[in-house]
Amino acid sequence: MTYNFDFGAVLAYWPLLLEGVWTTLRLTLFATVFGILIGAFCAITRTDGPAGARWVVSLYVEFIRNTPLLVQSYFLIFGIASMGIRLPILLGATLALTVNIGAYTTEIVRAGIESIHRGQLEAATCLGLSRTQTYLHVIIRPALERVYPALSSQYVLLMLASSIVSSVGVEELFGISNRIQSETYRNFEIFVVLGIIYLLLAVVVRAGFTLLGLAMFPRRRRLGTPL
Amino acid sequence: MNSAYTFSLLQGLWATVVLSMLTFLFGGLVGFIVGLARTSPTWVISRGAAAYIEIMQGLPLLVLMGLCFYGPSILGYDSLSPLPAATFALTLYSSAYLGEIWRGCIRAVARPQWEAAECLGLNRWQRMRAVILPQALRIAIPPTVGFMVQIVKNTSIASLVVGYAELSYNAKIINNATFEPFLYFGIAALMYFAICYPLSVQSRALERKLNVANR
C-alpha cells in the first residue's frame, strides 16, 4: 500500500463543509415542515375526503413512492426551468424534497389516523366538539403521536437522501464536496470525511426528533411509555 | 422522440433491472448473514451486526457509492468499473436494511417454537434450519418484496458518483441533447413505476394474505 492519506487537505476546507452542513439542515427542516403539512392534509383527504380527491391523493402517493427521488428532482427542477421559470435552486430542491416526503408522510399519517378507535370519534361527538376540534385534538394529534417513531426515521432518511439534490446543482454538504474534490483531488478522503459528518448528522437529527417528540407529546411521557 | 432515444431508454431500463437483480442477490446473501448475526446469542457478534446496520443506515447511499468507487484503488487494487462498484455499494446498503428486516422476522417467530425446539434436543443450527427459519421466511416475504422497490429506486443513484449508465443516467443524457425534461424524465419515471408498482401491490397483497388470522 503506497497511498498517503491526506485528510488535512480536506479538513482545511472546514468553513465550506460547515456551510454545506447548514444548507443540508435547512433543506431538511423546510422539507420536514412542509412535508408534515402536506402529509396531514393528504392523509385527511384520503381517509375522509370526496371520492375524486381521494383518488388524486392515492395517485400522488403511489406515483411518488414508486419512482426514485432522483428522477423526480430532474423532472421537477429541469421541467420548471424548461417552462422558462427561473426558480432559485434551493427553492427548487426544497420543492422536490417536499413533494417526495409529502407522499411518504401521507402514508404514515394515514396509518395513524386509521388506528384511531371509533369510540374516540363517538366520544368527541358526544362532547359536542366541532369538526375542526375533533380533527385537531382527537384525530391528528394522537395519530401523529402514534406514528411519531416511523415519521422521525423517515425524516432522518430524508436528511440523508437530500444529498441527491446535489445532482441538480445544489451546494449542500454533498454538492459542496465536489468543489473540494476538484481542488484537492483527494476523492477517497473526502468521502470518508463526508461519511463521518453524515453519520454525526444522523445522530444529531435523530436526537433532535426525540427531544421534539418529548416536548410535543407530554401525555405519553407522563404515562411513562417510551417514544 | 426518435427510435434511438427509445432504444437508449430501454437499454437503461435493462441496466437498471440487471443492477437491481445483482443487488438483491448479493444484498440478500449478506443481509441473511447480518440478520442471523444480529439475532446471535453471542454479544460480540450481535453488537457487531448492530453497529454495521447503524453505520450503513446513517450514511447516504451517494457517500457509500463514493467510498466503494474510490476505495479499492487506494488499497492497491485496480479501480472498479461502474457496475461492480455500484453493486458493491448497493449490496452493503441493502444488506443492512434486509438484515434488520429479517432480524425482525426471526424474532417474530413465537417464543414457544424456540422452546419446543430446545426441548426436542435440537442444537442451535438444527433449530434454526428446521424450526425457526421456515416460519420466519413466511413472515419475511411481504416486507422483502416491499424492500425490492427500494432497491430498484436506489439503483438510480448509481448514475451519479460511479456513472453507471442506467435508466435515469440515459434519460439525463437524452435530456441534455433535447431539453425536453417533462417528456424524457416522465417516460423514465413511468418505466420505474412499471417495475415498482407491481412489486408494491404484490407486497401488500401478500401481507393481507398472511395476516388472515387478524382480519
TrEMBL record, chain A:
GO terms for cellular component: ATP-binding cassette (ABC) transporter complex. Keywords: Cell membrane, Membrane, Transmembrane, Transmembrane helix, Transport. It comes from Bradyrhizobium centrolobii. One of its GO terms (biological process) is amino acid transport. It is a multi-pass membrane protein. The keyword Manganese does not apply. InterPro entries: AA_ABC_transptr_permease_3TM (IPR010065), ArtM/GltK/GlnP/TcyL/YhdX-like (IPR043429), MetI-like (IPR000515), MetI-like_sf (IPR035906). One of its GO terms (molecular function) is transmembrane transporter activity. Residues 21-209 form the ABC transmembrane type-1 domain. Belongs to the binding-protein-dependent transport system permease family. HisMQ subfamily. The chain crosses the membrane at residues 20-44, 74-97, 155-176, 188-217. Coiled coil: none annotated. It is found in: Cell inner membrane; Cell membrane. SUPFAM superfamilies: MetI-like. CDD domains: TM_PBP2. This is ABC transporter permease. It holds the Pfam family BPD_transp_1.
Automatic annotation (TrEMBL), chain B:
InterPro entries: AA_ABC_transptr_permease_3TM, ArtM/GltK/GlnP/TcyL/YhdX-like, MetI-like, MetI-like_sf. Keywords: Cell membrane, Membrane, Transmembrane, Transmembrane helix, Transport. PROSITE patterns: ABC_TM1 (PS50928). Residues 13-203 form the ABC transmembrane type-1 domain. It is found in: Cell inner membrane; Cell membrane. SUPFAM superfamilies: MetI-like. Its main location: membrane. Gene3D superfamilies: MetI-like. Coiled coil: none annotated. Pfam families: BPD_transp_1 (PF00528). It is a multi-pass membrane protein. GO terms for biological process: amino acid transport. The chain crosses the membrane at residues 12-37, 49-72, 182-201. GO terms for cellular component: ATP-binding cassette (ABC) transporter complex. GO terms for molecular function: transmembrane transporter activity. Belongs to the binding-protein-dependent transport system permease family. HisMQ subfamily. This is Amino acid ABC transporter permease. The lineage of its organism: Bacteria, Pseudomonadati, Pseudomonadota, Alphaproteobacteria, Hyphomicrobiales.
